[in-house]
Amino acid sequence: MLCVFQGQRVLQMAPLPGAELVQRPLQLYRYLLRCCRQLPTKGIQEHYKHTVRQSFRVHSDEDNPERIQQIIKRAIEDADWIMNKYKKQD
């Protein structure tokens, strides 16, 4: 994905291959857990796994397909940001 940020072209990559294939909540859940496994330490991994589980519990009653797609899109963007955050710290 190519984005423009403050007049500069910036290449942004999805955290793991397959982000574009995520269409359903279960696929998103599994995708986010795979992203967690890529994080640098066990403590960070557990923190984000807990966050993923909590988010799914909160949104488990969502039945509007449009809202579900919004949630999926935002979750993938957030995962991308987190993966880039820890990639820069390495």
UniProtKB/TrEMBL annotation:
Q: Domain Complex 1 LYR protein: where?
A: 23-80
InterPro entries given for it?
Answer: Complex1_LYR_dom, Complex1_LYR_LYRM9, Complex_I_LYR
Domain of life according to the entry: Eukaryota
The family note in this entry says: Belongs to the complex I LYR family. LYRM9 subfamily.
Name the UniProt record assigns to this protein: LYR motif-containing protein 9
| Organism expressing this protein natively | Nyctereutes procyonoides
